[in-house]
Amino acid sequence: MKALSKSKAATIYEVARHAGVSIATVSRALRDSDLVTESTRARVRAAVEALNYTPNQLGRSLAEGRHAANGIVFPDLTGPYYAEVVLGYEEAASELGRSVLILATHGRRDAEAAVLDLAGRVDGLAVMGNTVGDDTVRSIAATGVPLVLLARPPVDGVDTIRTRNERTAAELAAHLLAHGHRRIVFVGDPEAAPDMAGRYAGLAKTMRAHGLPKPDCRPCSYDVEAGERIGAQLMADPPDAVVCANDEVALGVHLAAEAAGRSVPHDLAVTGWDDVLAARFAGLTTVSQPMRELGATAARWLDGRIAERTAGPERATPRRRVLPTQLVVRRSCGSHPVEIPSPLGGTA
Amino acid sequence: MKALSKSKAATIYEVARHAGVSIATVSRALRDSDLVTESTRARVRAAVEALNYTPNQLGRSLAEGRHAANGIVFPDLTGPYYAEVVLGYEEAASELGRSVLILATHGRRDAEAAVLDLAGRVDGLAVMGNTVGDDTVRSIAATGVPLVLLARPPVDGVDTIRTRNERTAAELAAHLLAHGHRRIVFVGDPEAAPDMAGRYAGLAKTMRAHGLPKPDCRPCSYDVEAGERIGAQLMADPPDAVVCANDEVALGVHLAAEAAGRSVPHDLAVTGWDDVLAARFAGLTTVSQPMRELGATAARWLDGRIAERTAGPERATPRRRVLPTQLVVRRSCGSHPVEIPSPLGGTA
DNA sequence: CGTGGAAATGAAAGCGCTTTCAAAGTCGAA
DNA sequence: TTCGACTTTGAAAGCGCTTTCATTTCCACG
């Protein structure tokens, strides 16, 4: 191996010199342009090999006027929800020849600034949940960077993809009422996120339709520990059913109930949302969401928007989509004709 | 490459013109240099606001000679294992002022090329598990891009972080033997990954120490379905214990056992690895790993290497670290003095 | 008023690459 | 042997930004 002047990476100039050609030729040889002779290409390849050259993508991107990268912003990655979305996004973006930059805002005080910075590094950006405010979203949209909002309240002129919450929550509520449950408590914060608001709304609506009062509401963060805490409080005067904003919380409530000597579903019903793996093993009735598809759809929409943008300046009308969700009935909501063996299994 | 001044993002030139200053001044004003008057800075800020300017990070990075971004390569993101590592990595990198590029190689035939490309987009790269071969690793290392390998066999001269496998597997094996289990089967592929090899080795070693034959080994992919399949086969002639390469597989075997009318742990013991949330609810004995810390450590090491590299060309000796893991005993490995209530709970 | 020196600003040179445009080869036909 | 018509290659102009270095401006002081 040749003596490298420094531990610095080789540039196209060194490859050119080594191969005895110009940088233009190197560039063409590496990009499979048919404008170079086979023999030249071979010489360039040899030089690349010898110098262990890897093109600096910054230079390339700057020259091409595109980052060849997309970004995705999410609050967290604990629990399968966001991870699956990110995975779907990465998979689709990657197929479209784009790298993926991630940004978790969880607990960051400078989230808005970080997102703005990210916007300057990508050709398109997906923003999930309650990570940044509408102002930031609008200001990014104004810079011309294509944007897709996921599971987040829509903003004027910006594409949005969400999952169905209200209708499936209503379905869930109807199921619980059919089990004879009347005193139902919602654990989660309708104010915190539009998804949560929709879930609560669906529940409340169905109860009202049955002449029942608006269900109690216990705001709570979305992990097992928070569920256990709220659950313990509820056990002082257990309701018929506890509808939780997500599975982690529901599993926490489940634990708290058992700890208090109450049996699920005999003494009270508990339901979640997301259908995490653990829900299956805890026999938890929940709602499954097409998370992977959510991410993949975002990546594809962005790709389309980016193409449109380079084609012309006309601003198309914003797209909206609501992906279907599905109720997954297991033991935790009450006894069913065919009981599912403990502690495993479930029905899809 | 048509220059439509319309939907194109604003550049530093337009801001400069709008503010009536040079681009150098704009740059300084935005970077909080103390070389600009307050009044000038205000004028620049106003122009930025008016034009909704966001600096193009490509230009900036190219000029600064750094990407201000790190990459991480992993096979997949299903299950909490990789997700947690990525999260820890992102968190630490983000604190150090670096963005994070992700690349999932799962199922990609052009993984090596994609990783090489990624290497040209970052200042440092973490590579997890069996994503790319040693050749690719060496060739990236040769370009001078700092590299850290995670849960992967070491390569000459490259930093590596792993989690303890063999010793904890031996501990687990001893525990199973203490329960009286003698016929033990390992579900997983020691050939597939060094982590798996370590787990099998620890198990085999302990069994040998007790005068028992080398355990049977059932190669298998690492999801619930694969576990169910292998589990169903095993139920024809159930062993005393099934040691699984990870929790998903163990949960699958668990399901298969129940489906075949066998009870865990009464008829057979089952153990996993990773301590996923579902393991807690299935009462699965498993091993917990510091995944978050694995990722965070990688990010910090890379930051250090990047700093060293810009400081001087001297090549430091590669670092190695093995992070501790912990046996988590629950019901699934056999009856314990204090039985844990079903179907929840566990001991940490 | 004039001056030296500090403070603020501008001009311009890159950073590593792609791509246009022009120049230099190459080859077959006249 | 000479001439076009191609085919290959090279020179150079950016892409958007940072930063050095030179220049201008502004004051305090003589």
Automatic annotation (TrEMBL), chains A, B:
Residues 10-64 form the HTH lacI-type domain. It holds the Pfam family LacI. One of its GO terms (molecular function) is DNA-binding transcription factor activity. SUPFAM superfamilies: lambda repressor-like DNA-binding domains (SSF47413), Periplasmic binding protein-like I (SSF53822). It comes from the Bacteria. Keywords: DNA-binding, Repressor, Transcription, Transcription regulation. PANTHER family: HTH-TYPE TRANSCRIPTIONAL REPRESSOR PURR-RELATED (PTHR30146:SF148), LACI-RELATED TRANSCRIPTIONAL REPRESSOR (PTHR30146). This is Transcriptional regulator, LacI family. It comes from Asanoa ishikariensis. The lineage of its organism: Bacteria, Bacillati, Actinomycetota, Actinomycetes, Micromonosporales.
